[in-house]
Amino acid sequence: MNNEEILTNVRRIIGEMCPLGAREAGPDERIMEDLGYDSMAVVELALVLEAEFELEPIEEEQAIDLVTVRDVAELVEHMVSARA
Amino acid sequence: MTIAGDLPGVVSDITETQDVRPDLMPTSQDLYYRWERQQWSVAALDLADDTAAWTRLRPFYRTELLNALTELEVGEVTVVETLSSLVDRAPTDDDRIYLSTQLADEGRHVRFFQTYLRQAAGISGEGLADSADYTNHFAPELRRVTRAVWAEDDRASWYRAVVYYHLITEGVLAATALRTTRQLARRLPLPALVEGLTNVTRDESRHVAFGMLAARDGVGAGYGGPVLESYLHGLDLAARVLVGPLRKQAVPAVRTALGIRAAQLRGGFDIARDRAMRQLSHIGLPEAVPEAGAVWDRALERALDAYAEHWNTPHPVRAAGALSKGEDTR
């Protein structure tokens, strides 16, 4: 899966799980401020992304601020490439 | 007189209520009349919206809610089965009359949780107790100390049982679980669950008030030793129930989410710890707070060890490396 496909799928998942109701999630939309995610929803999103992309913890990953949809997609890309 | 706790919609969580000056604490007779004003009905709850919502719940929330509701249901069943010796051996007639109202409350709580799980969540109550941490870690001790009230027939046994029952099971464990579960039910939203948990919280506030009143009387009457000994042992067990070594927690691979998850869980631990320390001061044993805090912290660490041993993976709080210590400030 290339980075564009990852971004497309991340946008789909974030849009489907949006606490404000299913919608299309733009890459620069902010997860919390624009899409209504709270901390519980972010944890749930992470678990769904892990299942979808078969993500595993990576040693060098630091806790970062996941502000936008694109931030999430880039993290997924990083974790997928680290796994490969 | 109308008090805030009587008004629908303004029920504070037990863990959020302000400490009451000892001379302003309600008597058992006051608590009886409060019970008369605060009646509610399981049958009157409309579960239709919740039933529909449960069919749409995603696995994460479903698991979170079922774990919480299972522990609450199992706890309520246990307290129904163990209150009678406290009623029978109550120190005064007013205490006995008040405790009789509590027995009715506990029965209603069991009916509420079982009805909700069956009708809204579509879960049979069968087998729920087997995997509950309360069943495995706390209920055996509660049964032992409440049976001892019959067997030993002395005042010290009664005060010991009040500590395990009212102060630890209700004042620490149920208070924490009700607060966190009610918050989750509000955000989903599950209106009947919010309403039911609000009613249960209101009832539990009376129960905990009675427990603090009774324990404070016990300390004043020279039973401080058995009260404190029971309290410290009860805290040791309660920390284990709260961590839940038998309950598998989701451990997010994404570190940011893991940190959030750990903070959520640690928030529950902190609520319980804070509540436990405040109660101790409130019943007249403020000098024991540092020791109780140390007991709690050690028990929490041991429970996290037990989790890691049981599941062969660290608890999210350990995985995030973020277990913080609370402050003994009260």
TrEMBL record, chain A:
SUPFAM superfamilies: ACP-like
Pfam families from the UniProt entry: PP-binding
Signal sequence bounds: none
Carrier domain span: 4-80
Taxonomy, superkingdom: Bacteria
Protein's recorded name: Carrier domain-containing protein
Top-level taxonomy: Bacteria, Bacillati, Actinomycetota, Actinomycetes, Streptosporangiales
From TrEMBL, chain B:
Gene3D superfamilies: Ribonucleotide Reductase, subunit A
Name of the protein: Uncharacterized protein
Cofactor: Fe cation
Species annotation: Actinocorallia aurantiaca
